[in-house]
Description:
- The protein is α/β, with parallel strands linked by helices.
- The protein is 38% helix and 24% strand.
- It folds into two domains: 5-218, Spore Coat Polysaccharide Biosynthesis Protein SpsA, Chain A; 229-303, no CATH class.
- The protein contains ten helices and 13 strands.
- Strands 1, 2, 3, 4, 5, 6, 7, 10, 11, 12 and 13 form an eleven-stranded mixed beta sheet that branches. Strands 8-9 form a two-stranded antiparallel ribbon.
- The longest helix is centred in the C-terminal third of the chain and has 21 residues, at 250-270.
Amino acid sequence: MTPRIAIVxxxxxxxxxxxxxxxxxxxxxxxxxxxxxxxxxxASHDTTVAQVRSTFPQAVVIENGANLGxxxxxxxxxxxxxxxxxxxxxxxxxxxxxxxxxxxxxxxVAAADPTIAAAGPIIxxxxxxxxxxxxxxxxxxxxxxxxxxxxxxxxxxxVARRVDFVTGCAMLIRVDALATVGLxxxxxxxxxxxxxxxxxASRAGYHCYFTPAAKVWHKIPLNARFDREYLxxxxxxxxxxxxxxxxxxxxxxxxxxxxxxLRTYLSLWLRPKWRTRKGRIGMGLGWIDFWRGRxxxxxxLVMRKAD
Length: 307
């Protein structure tokens, strides 16, 4: 029997990207009767909901009524998939486009091994179609660093393999695994939630897998940098939350807090060429909010330029 797939596309504005993403999903070669598109909208204030309903009437649209973030927003789609009895859920960013056989390739990998909790494709930059953005992730527990393979041209060097994590940008999840692993930790709001989930899955006896046979293109800028306040805030706070949630060793904590974060923070303030870096405000607030236990969405101070 062909596995049933729920394709969950989380949206928060970006109507043009969303429509292009859904159009690419319409070209999938995976049997149409075994896949459904579920658009979960985080209270977009553009015309996303109206245009999705008019252009793609076959899609299920769930309106959250508020911006729940990546973790809680996708949890809505994951719960829906559980309730409706799907076999797998494909979480997909709305600013992506997929190869026609992408879903066939991911499902084939996951179906061949019941211990695979999540499978991920190779993800290219949309603006540079052969440049790799993500080819599976690894975790350096000694330094507390999560690394995605990529940032180079694809000349066939990537092979299918087990990985520590796959990015939530395009992530096929086995629905049965959710009963054991659970959903995303909503404290993260955005960033690191899928990595922490993959660690939980691994510790529950599952593993994650990467296959370059499945291909996705992501509309992320080629020169994207995490130096805006809200990005620096989430990356700082959530990295520390990741270490706590995964029970990292005290040696890892010392390395992260002293050898890395403190040095980076001082550099942002003291080195002349870094003094205008916007990230120092977000990084400082991320530190403060982690230690005082403030999670969820970032404070308005660091979100003023996020939209």
